[in-house]
Amino acid sequence: MANYALHGPDSAMDQSDAFFNKHRATSSLPPSAFNVGNTPLLKLDRISKNLFGKAEFLNPTGSVKDRAAANMLKQAIESGQLVEGKEILDSSSGNTGISLAAFGTAAGYKVTIVLPSSASIERQRLLNLYGARIVFSDPMEGSDGAIIVARDLASEAPERYFYIDQYSNDANWQAHYYGTSEEIWRQTSGMITHFVSGVGTGGTIMGTGKRLRELNPKVKIIAVEPSGPFHGLEGLKHIESSIKPRIFEPNFPDETVYVETEKAQEMVKRLAREQGVFAGTSSGATVLASLKYAAHEYSHVVAILADQGSRYLSEKYLQEQ
Ligand SMILES: Cc1ncc(COP(=O)(O)O)c(C=O)c1O
């Protein structure tokens, strides 16, 4: 893990710690919900000289969604919306559900996650492990199908459920506006030229992008989406053919790069074999999308590595050499 030491957490910790630890002493949330963020910035110099990966897979439950989940739960509890006896409800392609289940169950809440039944077995097992009740939705309907089922459950039993709705929840992007952006700014000593992130709810790219643009309006914000409606880039959305998340503004990114699933999968293997980093399929997509920007002489490109590769080990492409 030699590269981890190069751009480790530093005084960025002051700011995001203050944001994340506001009510730590009195919160019903577990300590792990307060150990979110301050992830390392990895130098991906075997892939490209000016390329860095923000290791979000090193968050407590293994993905970037720990940030959004922890902040959405804190806001809901502190605002009095989420009270004892209420059941936490959301739809997810997996990662947000895993974070909500981990933090919510340990805080004493029941957690129900609507999940497309096509989600990998690793995700289903992690949801079970963290005590979530899974409601499966039609795999052909993807994450939109899960959103619709969750909305129906919430409207049928409003007294029972607290519907977090990560696609419309401001606490989602705010976790990145106050956390991820500040860390990246400090870890790059303000030299970042391009920020590259996948789009699922849009929380990561909107929150981080908004703050980085305030810090330096020249920073290019690059969105990464699957190349079509039917894809294997778990967690990402092909916005044009999907229910648009309320928190995502399609005109906000400077550019959008569309990536084919197979190409992203090839990059996952390159990252493992050339960098010793095993991240998920959407990370393969953000690194691939970053190459043309990292080729510029004076660029300093940061790509989000959203989750752990181990969540995909059962997938066919990782069975092949
Ligand atoms: C693996 C993965 N990558 C990227 C994202 C996109 O993150 P966001 O929802 O902040 O747009 C997600 C979201 O669920 C994800 O699970």
Main sheet: strand order: 1-2-10-7-8-9
Helix content: 25-40%
CATH architecture of the largest domain: 3-Layer(aba) Sandwich
Note poorly predicted spans: 1-10
Please explain how this structure is put together.
The longest helix is centred in the middle third of the chain and has 18 residues, at 170-187. The chain is of the alpha/beta class and 321 residues long. It is built from nine helices and ten strands. Helix 2 packs across helix 6 (170-187). The protein is globular, with a radius of gyration of 18 Å. The protein has helices at 12-20, 65-78, 95-106, 121-129, 142-156, 170-187, 203-215, 261-275, 281-294, and strands spanning 41-43, 51-55, 87-91, 110-116, 133-137, 161-163, 194-198, 220-226, 255-259, 301-305. The strands form two sheets. The chain has a six-stranded mixed sheet with strand order 1-2-10-7-8-9. A four-stranded parallel sheet has the order 5-4-3-6, with helices on both faces. The two termini are 24 Å apart. The protein folds into two domains: 9-64 and 170-318, Rossmann fold, CATH 3.40.50; 67-163, Rossmann fold, CATH 3.40.50.1100. It binds pyridoxal-5'-phosphate (PLP).
